[in-house]
Structure formats: C-alpha cells, structure tokens
Amino acid sequence: MGVQRLLRNTPGVESHPFLARLARYADLDVAEVGTIRNAMQGALTIRKKKDIVLEGYICDALHLVDDGFGVRYKLLGNGKRQVLSVILPGDIIGLPGALYRRAVYSVSSVTCMRLNVISLKNFMHLCRDIPSLAFGMLCLSQEDLVMSSDHLIDVGRRTPLERVAHFILELHARLHSIGRASPNSVDVPMSQGIIGDLLGLSAAHVNRMLRQLQEQRLISTCNHTIMIEDATRLRFLAKYEPHVLTGLSLG
Amino acid sequence: MGVQRLLRNTPGVESHPFLARLARYADLDVAEVGTIRNAMQGALTIRKKKDIVLEGYICDALHLVDDGFGVRYKLLGNGKRQVLSVILPGDIIGLPGALYRRAVYSVSSVTCMRLNVISLKNFMHLCRDIPSLAFGMLCLSQEDLVMSSDHLIDVGRRTPLERVAHFILELHARLHSIGRASPNSVDVPMSQGIIGDLLGLSAAHVNRMLRQLQEQRLISTCNHTIMIEDATRLRFLAKYEPHVLTGLSLG
DNA sequence: CGCCGTCTTGAGTAAGTTCAACACTAGTGG
DNA sequence: CCACTAGTGTTGAACTTACTCAAGACGGCG
Predict the structure, then answer these.
(1) Strands of B51-53's sheet, edge to edge?
(2) For residues A156 and B85, is the Cβ–Cβ distance under 8 A?
(3) From the centroid of its chain, how far is CA A96?
(4) Residue A197 phi, psi dihedral angles, 5° rounding
C-alpha cells in the first residue's frame, strides 16, 4: 500500500538520470516523459570548480544534473564553510532556491558537469499538467531530506573515523545505484578539504582518518579512487545502514 | 514569477495549523480545504514523553500536529542520540516514513500533543484529486529540507555558544510565525539533554552555554521560558539570518 | 621546468566530554 | 498532606580529542 518503486521503466527515461530517478516514484507515460524531456532546454557544460548558483542571487530555473560532481554549501561569517551535500547525476540544483526566488545556498562544480536547465515557469506548468510529477518531486524531495538527516546524524553524533567511513559507503551506494561505481570502488574527485567541510572536520583530520582506515586494511586508495577492501568491517565500523533510498530493499 | 505566499487565506484554513501552513503555498479553494479537512480523522491526544513513531515500524499514516511539541530523532548504536528536528504545530509526522512504508526515524512527544491522522491511502487520493496539494506538500518538504540544512550548518560549523543562541532564535521565529510566541520570549519545554542531542553537544555544555548567554545579558530564563533580552546582540552572536520560511520577507 | 593546490605529518593548544556530586522540582503514592 | 522518587539543572575537575599552525613532499598542469 506504500509508494512503490515502479519496476518497469517507461521508455525514454534512460535518456537522463533525472528522469530515471523521477520514474521510480512518478508513474509517467511515454507522452509525459516526452513533455518533460522537451521542457529541458539544451545542455549546459560547466568546468570544474566553477560556481553554478550563488547564495542570495535570483534563482528562477532548475538545473538537472546529467553528469559530474558538485557540492551544495554555505559560507559562514567566520570564513568557515559547511558543505551540505554532494550533488550527483540525477540530482536537481536550485530547488529550494527557486521556490523562494533567491538561492538559499551556493552550488559549485567539483568536476566538469553537464546540466539541463528548466525554467521555474515551465516547471510549474508541468506540475499542473502532469499530475504525478508534483508527487514524484515530493518523493525526491523527501529523499533529499532523508539524506540531509543522515548527514546531520553523521556530523552530530558520530566519531570522525565513523564519519569518514560512512561518507565513503554512502557515496559508493549513491553512485552504485545510478550505475556509476563498480561493486567495491568509488571515484572521489573532491579534495580532503571539501570532505572536511562536508563532515565538519579539518582537512588534516580527514587525512588522518583516511590513513587509519588504510592501516586497518578497510580501504586502499589510488589517485582519487577509493577501493573498499573489507566492506563488512567498514560497514560495521561506520554503523552503516543501507538507505531505503539507494537501497534495493523496497518491494 | 516565483512561488508566492498567498496573502489571503481561504476560509477554513485557520481551523488547523497544518492547513494554514499548506495554504501559504497551495492555492486551495473552500471545497478543497473541506475535502482535506474531512480526510483528517478524529483528533488523537498523546501524553508527554510518549513514542509516536518508532524507527523501522510500519508507517502508513500521516499525523498532522495540531498542538504540542515533539522531536524527531535517531538512536545510534553507541547509545547516543541525534535529535533531527523539533516538531511544532502545523508539522507533519511520518512523511518520509510513509513513502518508504517503514518509519525512517523515531518521533516522540515532549509535551502533551494533539494530532490528526490521515491515512497514506487517503493522502495519495487527495494528491490525485487536488492538483495543488502535491505541489504545496513539495513546498513544505523543501521547507523541512532548508531547516535540516540550517541545522546541519549549526552542528557542523558553529561554536557551541552560537549553536545555543541560534537554536533559541530559530525556535522563537518558528513559534512566533504560528502565533505561539510573544515578541521576545519563547517557551522551551524540552530538557537540556534534548537540546544537547539536537545541537550535538553534551547536556552539561548546553547548560554552560545557556549560563554564559545569561551572564552576557542576552537572555534570561524563568522556568522553561526564555526571555530574549537583547535580540540584536543575540542575532549578531548567532550569525542568525531570519528564514525565508518563518520570515516575513517574501513578497 | 616551475608553480599551485593538495596531501601529509608533527607539536602544541584549546575545547568539549565524561564523570561525579549535589540541588531543585514536579509528580506519585501512601 | 507529606515523604519519596525520578528526572532535571548545575557545577567542578580531569581527560581526550580534534583543531590550529606550520613545514615539507608530492603531483598535475601550464
């Protein structure tokens, strides 16, 4: 009786990771997928380490991530920064901002990114025309909320070692669920400074924790790729619970 | 062109704080308000410090808070607890859980609470029948996301003193926006232990920070009421930015 | 080849936790 | 009506921990 993920995929949905994600919740027919697809204006390419959205600026469009890594963050008065989330293919940039007219947080690319734009006006028309779109977006929004809550648990009540371990597992799960990670390795293109700002740690301490995980033979690293050497022990250490979201546990 | 808050209220909307909150985003007519109102089954009263939702249990209904304080939290393996959010009148309990069939986090009452129940089945029917309901829920969901993100910033990158100050201001703003706080005092019915679990601090340290705020004549306390003695300095200390959400800054 | 950003490491320091003890309050049951 | 109890608030001292700062190594890119 719950909201079930749709097992079959409407054709056309594979053409963009956002559509694939949406289609897990919204029961879209081929015509509707086409309508949404058409509303997505031409692709936009962003180079690495560029700002995409700046806090406080007018925000009247949604950016749907087709490829690449980004971060959503906020700069504090004291020069510190909190990274709120890692943005991956299929994610939406600019949602809370669009609903309040001005961006609430900043977003910048980590790697080169490919985005598709949809204006807020068009998006709202689509919500009116396609009944299940708004509901699907509600579900995606709740996904984000659960991710944000898990992140909060990380930062608030886990030890630094647990946080780093958890971060690796979570990023891996997210990437794996969209077919962008092999079973036991993850590409982590962000610097340890960014990871520190994500986990509420100093860059130096992230480094130490990463080193400790390697010494315990739980992971190994090579360039910016992390290999998960012992998933069981790493999960145990991180008290990791596979997401309802990324998980495959939904019937 | 953004999503504007509706300045006029549809009659009937004042009968429940959830409807009032929803009506800021969803353009509901009188009939629609009545339909939603009817779907809300009889009121449910919960005594203080009782569990309302337990993580992992089947969750097939939404609870709309009419009155009282609650907390959404998660228990960690090591006995620690992270309080994810304070639940106030107008909030919805059980949303992420309902969409995934099982509760993702636990919720318990802090004070005595009055709730209205709406089954997930009815809710989904309503979303289909009332086009703007799903969209309004999306907006409320984004509100929660922004609150969660702000909370994350607190815990990740603010000093303990800033966190406590920020917590007081934020709770005050939320209560004030629903007409449940006077201009310069807040009722804070939760223990310092709960505040600690909310802010990622020990109860002892919350106590010290609270004292420090009193010594600096920024606040004063009396029973479970906090008086804001110097809002300007308190805001400055907390680097508080009034929410787009609770704020009145939306045109 | 040289430069900039990142990684790595150490030492000292500031900070918050833990633990423990006691005061106070409200609610309970006799 | 009063003792009792459990939960909360309050405080101090010792301890751990992660930060800060700084310096050097590394590595990719122009």
Answers:
(1) B51-53, B106-109, B70-75, B81-87
(2) no
(3) 15
(4) -65, -25
Specify the DSSP element, H or E, that contains B109.
strand B106-109
Chain B's closest residue to A238, CA to CA, is: B77
Look up residue A111 and give its two tokens. Answer: 């790697």
Reference B53, options B99, B95, B114, B111; nearest CA is B95
Share of chain A above pLDDT 70, in %: 94
Distance of CA B194 to the CA centre of its chain: 15
Q: Which pLDDT score, from 0 to 100, does residue A3 have? A: 55
Q: Give this prediction's pTM.
A: 0.94
- The verdict on a CB contact (< 8 Å) between A100 and B145 is no
Q: pLDDT digits over B123-151, tens only?
A: 999 999 998 999 999 999 999 999 999 99
Q: Is the pLDDT of residue A30 over 60?
A: yes
| Chain C nucleotides reached by a protein CB under 7 Å | 5-11, 15-20, 26
Q: Report, as an integer, the average pLDDT of B87-106.
A: 94
* Cβ contacts of A117 within 8 Å, gap of 6 or more: A40, A41, A42, A44, A61, A62, A63, A64
Distance of B194 CA from C9 C1′ (whole Å) = 39
Which distant-in-sequence residues (6+ apart) come within 8 Å of A207 by Cβ? A192
pLDDT tens column, A101-144: 899 999 999 999 999 999 999 999 999 999 899 999 999 999 99
Surface-to-core class of residue A30, CB atoms within 10 Å of its CB (0-12 exposed, 13-18 middle, 19+ buried): exposed
